[in-house]
Amino acid sequence: MKVLYAASEAIPLIASGGLADVAGSLPVYLNRSGCDVRVILPLYGSIDAKWREKMKFLTYFYVSLSWRSVYCGVFELKDRGVTYYFIDNEQYFMRGSLYGEYDDGERFAFFSKAVIEALCRIDFEPDVIHCNDWQTAMIPVYLREYRWVGKLAAVKTLFTIHNIQFQGQYD
Fold first, then answer.
1. Can the peptide bond before residue 27 be classed as cis, meaning omega within 30 degrees of 0?
2. Quick one: average pLDDT of 143-168?
3. For residue 57, what are the CA distances in angstroms to 60, 72, 110?
4. Which terminus of the chain has a smaller tally of CB atoms within 10 A, N or C?
5. Percent helix, strand, coil in the chain (nearest 5)?
6. Burial class (CB within 10 angstroms; exposed 0-12, middle 13-18, buried 19+) of 64
7. Strand pairing class (156-160; 68-79)
8. What pTM does this model have?
9. What gap in Å lies between CA 37 and CA 152, rounded to an integer?
10. Rg of the chain's alpha carbons, rounded to an integer?
């Protein structure tokens, strides 16, 4: 089985809580069990330089977001038997903190749409996209709009809530 594990944080790359623990350990375990699990994360400015130096640039494109097109780069890193993809946009992710910004709703709507757009351009065709917490909750919605793309037509989604207290409610 091929799984794209979409999350907003994962140890040892970037962490603020329990989601990072699961996103950092479950894909490693599942890969050792014979699955092909890859993780996709935002490329935050606070990701340590030692990780950034190991990243490989894959591609870039523009994501339609409301009335404008927004730059999106995709980077790749391999560590502990897991392939990590990173969604790059400095306007949204080159910040001092992971969450709590005035535009978190927009930032993670961009991330969710960029995940789908990235799948159209990278060499990975998952059977399942495993979405985690509110930061990735729009992925299943956007995926429905991309069913015409052959490699996305049969992709299923799974949504896991790690902490119901944080629901991503914004104006």
1. no
2. 83
3. 9, 12, 19
4. C
5. 30, 30, 40
6. exposed
7. unpaired
8. 0.93
9. 17
10. 15
Q: Determine the residue type at 11.
A: I
- DSSP line for 116-162: HHHHTTSS---SEEEEESGGGTTHHHHHHHTTTSGGGTT-EEEEE-S
Mean pLDDT across the chain: 93
Q: Which residues have CB under 8 Å from 19's CB, separation 6+? A: 7, 8, 9, 132, 133, 162, 163
Amino acid at 36: D
* C-alpha closest to that of 41 among 87, 79, 2: 87
CA torsion 62-72-108-1 (nearest 10°) is: 100
Burial of 3 (0-12, 13-18, 19+ CB in 10 A): buried
The span from the first CA to the last CA of the chain, in angstroms, equals 38
pLDDT at 101 over 90: no
The residue among 25, 149, 140 whose CA lies nearest residue 81 is: 25
Q: Closest Cα to residue 20, out of 29, 9, 28?
A: 9
The two tokens of residue 48 are 């340590």
